[in-house]
Structure formats: structure tokens, C-alpha cells
Design brief:
Helices cover about 80% and strands about 0% of the residues. By secondary structure, it is mainly α. Helix 1 (about 5-40) packs antiparallel against helix 2, helix 1 packs antiparallel against helix 4 (about 95-125) and helix 2 runs parallel beside helix 4 (about 95-125).
Length: about 160
């Protein structure tokens, strides 16, 4: 256990940052749907795939991603997950709806990796006594990311 090093706060801060950005991207789908419908000329049913792509992907791939990432180091698995979560950065360069949905799927695959791996990272760097507080802080920031998504996208 590496709980006695001061770098654990840096490590957890980075994990919180990735998780918070995930919360921001996750919650922004709903408020953006009208803009997506207008931009791509699609109906509500088609737009629903953008919103549902993330939870469906996580529901289907959480266990397989857990099995795959268990074979990697936590650092490598978290880096892969964070990279996949960043797929939304491609959005301004997309000219059709299907690639947009695929970026959402890539984001969700990243989320299916980073959420459990972030918990494992916290467990590696913090004592059992500290974990409830660390996990509470992490969840607070994830929900802050969710709230910021609505503040930033609705107007």
C-alpha cells in the first residue's frame, strides 16, 4: 500500500478530473439533443440513440472491459479509458450523425474502464479508513460535472 506518500493526492486529483469530465460529457447529451437534431436533420427517435448510446454501451461492456483491463496495470487501463472518453473531441470535425454516435460509444467504453479503475486506484493509494471520504469527494466532483453540463449546455 502506498498510502503514506504525498503523491497520492496528485494521483487522486487526476482521477477526479477524468471522472468529472466524464460526468460533464455524460449529462450534456440531453440538453444538446435539440441542437443535434437541427444540425443533422434527424428526428427525435434517431436523436435518442445519441442519448442512449452511453448507458447502453456501459451496461453491455462494463464486465468485458473489467475483464480486459484486469490484465493491464491500473495506470495503463486508466490511460486507455481516459483516451476513449476523449473521443468527443472529434465532434467538431464530424459531418454526419453516425460518427457522432460512435464517439459517444467510445466515450462510454472509456467510462466503463475509468469508473472501476479509478476506484481501484483510490483503494491502492488510500487506507480503508480514508476511502469513504475520498470516494465521497470523487462522487461530489462527478456530480458537479453533471451539473455544469446543464449550466453550460442549456443556455
Amino acid at each position: 500500500m502506498q498510502s503514506n506518500t504525498r503523491y497520492r493526492f496528485v494521483i487522486q486529483s487526476l482521477a477526479i478530473l477524468v471522472r468529472s469530465c466524464g460526468g460533464l460529457v455524460w449529462a450534456s447529451a440531453g440538453p444538446l439533443l435539440p441542437l443535434i437534431m437541427k444540425e443533422y436533420g434527424i428526428n427525435r427517435g434517431a436523436a435518442g440513440w445519441f442519448a442512449s448510446a452511453a448507458p447502453l454501451t456501459v451496461a453491455i461492456f462494463a464486465i468485458p472491459m473489467g475483464i480486459l483491463t484486469a490484465r493491464l496495470s491500473l495506470k495503463k487501463a486508466f490511460a486507455i479509458g481516459a483516451f476513449l472518453q476523449a473521443a468527443g473531441l472529434l465532434t467538431p470535425f464530424l459531418d454526419s450523425y453516425l460518427p457522432l454516435v460512435l464517439t459517444r460509444v467510445a466515450f462510454a467504453l472509456g467510462t466503463a474502464i475509468t469508473v472501476p479503475v479509478a476506484a481501484a486506484i483510490a483503494a491502492e493509494w488510500f487506507t480503508a479508513r480514508e476511502l469513504p471520504l475520498v470516494n465521497g469527494i470523487t462522487m461530489s466532483f462527478v456530480n458537479l460535472g453533471n451539473a455544469l453540463a446543464f449550466v453550460a449546455t442549456v443556455p
